[in-house]
Protein backbone atom coordinates (compact mmCIF):
# COMPACT_ATOMS: atom_id res chain seq x y z
CA UNK A 1 0.00 0.00 0.00
CA UNK A 2 2.80 2.42 0.85
CA UNK A 3 4.45 2.11 -2.56
CA UNK A 4 1.13 2.80 -4.30
CA UNK A 5 0.68 5.86 -2.08
CA UNK A 6 4.24 7.01 -2.76
CA UNK A 7 3.93 6.92 -6.55
CA UNK A 8 0.25 7.84 -6.82
CA UNK A 9 -0.66 10.31 -4.07
CA UNK A 10 -4.32 11.31 -4.06
CA UNK A 11 -3.29 14.92 -4.63
CA UNK A 12 0.04 15.97 -6.21
CA UNK A 13 0.42 18.90 -3.79
CA UNK A 14 -1.20 20.53 -0.75
CA UNK A 15 -1.56 24.24 -0.02
CA UNK A 16 -0.96 26.14 3.21
CA UNK A 17 -0.46 29.68 4.47
CA UNK A 18 2.77 30.86 6.07
CA UNK A 19 2.12 31.46 9.81
CA UNK A 20 5.11 33.73 10.44
CA UNK A 21 7.92 35.31 8.41
CA UNK A 22 11.02 33.19 7.85
CA UNK A 23 13.84 32.58 5.41
CA UNK A 24 14.86 29.17 4.13
CA UNK A 25 17.76 28.46 1.75
CA UNK A 26 17.78 32.07 0.57
CA UNK A 27 14.03 32.26 -0.02
CA UNK A 28 11.91 34.70 1.99
CA UNK A 29 8.50 33.46 3.17
CA UNK A 30 6.22 36.19 4.48
CA UNK A 31 3.31 35.65 6.84
CA UNK A 32 0.07 35.06 4.94
CA UNK A 33 1.68 33.87 1.69
CA UNK A 34 0.25 30.75 0.13
CA UNK A 35 2.73 27.95 -0.40
CA UNK A 36 2.50 24.50 -1.97
CA UNK A 37 4.04 21.31 -0.66
CA UNK A 38 4.93 19.09 -3.61
CA UNK A 39 3.81 15.63 -2.44
CA UNK A 40 4.63 13.79 -5.67
CA UNK A 41 8.00 15.54 -6.03
CA UNK A 42 9.02 14.71 -2.48
CA UNK A 43 7.87 11.10 -2.79
CA UNK A 44 9.95 10.66 -5.96
CA UNK A 45 13.03 12.71 -5.03
CA UNK A 46 16.21 10.82 -5.99
CA UNK A 47 17.97 12.22 -2.89
CA UNK A 48 15.63 10.13 -0.72
CA UNK A 49 14.60 7.25 -2.97
CA UNK A 50 16.62 4.71 -4.93
CA UNK A 51 15.15 4.40 -8.46
CA UNK A 52 12.30 6.72 -7.48
CA UNK A 53 10.16 6.17 -10.60
CA UNK A 54 10.18 2.37 -10.28
CA UNK A 55 7.34 0.59 -8.52
CA UNK A 56 9.05 -1.48 -5.80
CA UNK A 57 6.67 -2.56 -3.01
CA UNK A 58 9.53 -4.23 -1.15
CA UNK A 59 11.24 -0.87 -0.52
CA UNK A 60 9.05 -0.42 2.58
CA UNK A 61 9.93 -3.76 4.21
CA UNK A 62 12.96 -2.37 6.04
CA UNK A 63 12.54 1.37 5.52
CA UNK A 64 12.17 3.73 8.46
CA UNK A 65 9.47 6.13 7.29
CA UNK A 66 9.96 9.72 8.44
CA UNK A 67 7.37 12.51 8.50
CA UNK A 68 9.22 14.39 5.72
CA UNK A 69 10.56 11.99 3.05
CA UNK A 70 7.35 9.97 2.56
CA UNK A 71 4.42 12.37 2.44
CA UNK A 72 1.54 10.97 0.39
CA UNK A 73 -1.00 12.93 2.46
CA UNK A 74 0.95 15.97 3.62
CA UNK A 75 4.14 16.45 5.58
CA UNK A 76 5.11 16.50 9.21
CA UNK A 77 3.11 15.32 12.20
CA UNK A 78 -0.67 14.87 12.22
CA UNK A 79 -1.06 16.96 15.37
CA UNK A 80 1.18 19.92 14.52
CA UNK A 81 1.76 20.11 10.77
CA UNK A 82 0.01 19.77 7.43
CA UNK A 83 -0.46 16.00 7.42
CA UNK A 84 -3.88 14.42 6.93
CA UNK A 85 -5.32 12.98 10.16
CA UNK A 86 -7.27 10.44 8.08
CA UNK A 87 -4.12 8.85 6.65
CA UNK A 88 -4.49 5.63 8.68
CA UNK A 89 -8.11 5.30 7.56
CA UNK A 90 -7.01 5.61 3.93
CA UNK A 91 -4.41 2.86 4.43
CA UNK A 92 -6.94 0.50 6.02
CA UNK A 93 -9.43 1.15 3.20
CA UNK A 94 -6.75 0.45 0.58
CA UNK A 95 -5.90 -2.83 2.30
CA UNK A 96 -9.57 -3.85 2.41
CA UNK A 97 -10.13 -3.05 -1.28
CA UNK A 98 -6.93 -4.85 -2.27
CA UNK A 99 -7.99 -7.93 -0.33
CA UNK A 100 -11.42 -7.83 -2.01
CA UNK A 101 -9.94 -7.57 -5.52
CA UNK A 102 -7.44 -10.36 -4.87
CA UNK A 103 -9.48 -12.77 -2.74
CA UNK A 104 -13.22 -12.20 -3.28
CA UNK A 105 -13.74 -11.71 -7.01
CA UNK A 106 -12.37 -12.79 -10.37
CA UNK A 107 -12.29 -10.47 -13.35
CA UNK A 108 -10.55 -9.70 -16.63
CA UNK A 109 -8.70 -6.48 -17.37
CA UNK A 110 -8.71 -5.67 -21.11
CA UNK A 111 -6.02 -3.59 -22.79
CA UNK A 112 -6.60 0.07 -21.93
CA UNK A 113 -4.85 3.39 -21.52
CA UNK A 114 -3.80 3.66 -17.86
CA UNK A 115 -1.73 6.81 -18.32
CA UNK A 116 -2.80 9.35 -15.72
CA UNK A 117 -4.78 12.47 -16.57
CA UNK A 118 -2.68 14.80 -14.45
CA UNK A 119 -4.91 17.80 -15.22
CA UNK A 120 -7.60 16.25 -13.00
CA UNK A 121 -7.67 16.02 -9.21
CA UNK A 122 -7.38 13.30 -8.25
CA UNK A 123 -5.51 12.11 -11.35
CA UNK A 124 -7.43 9.33 -13.09
CA UNK A 125 -6.32 6.84 -15.77
CA UNK A 126 -7.38 7.95 -19.26
CA UNK A 127 -9.51 4.80 -19.67
CA UNK A 128 -10.51 4.96 -16.01
CA UNK A 129 -10.16 1.29 -15.04
CA UNK A 130 -12.15 -1.20 -17.06
CA UNK A 131 -12.95 -4.64 -15.70
CA UNK A 132 -14.86 -7.34 -17.57
CA UNK A 133 -16.51 -10.60 -16.62
CA UNK A 134 -16.57 -9.69 -12.94
CA UNK A 135 -17.81 -12.53 -10.76
CA UNK A 136 -17.74 -13.53 -7.10
CA UNK A 137 -15.10 -16.12 -6.35
CA UNK A 138 -16.55 -19.50 -5.29
UniProtKB/TrEMBL annotation:
Gene3D superfamilies: Cytochrome P450. Signal peptide: none annotated. Keywords: Heme, Iron, Metal-binding, Oxidoreductase. SUPFAM superfamilies: Cytochrome P450. PANTHER family: CYTOCHROME P450 FAMILY 3 (PTHR24302), FATTY-ACID PEROXYGENASE (PTHR24302:SF15). Belongs to the cytochrome P450 family. This is Cytochrome P450.
Amino acid sequence: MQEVRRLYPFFPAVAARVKSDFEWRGYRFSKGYRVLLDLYGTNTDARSWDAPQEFRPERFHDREVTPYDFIPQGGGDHHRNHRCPGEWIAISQMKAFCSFFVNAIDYEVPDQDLDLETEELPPMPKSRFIMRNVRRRQ
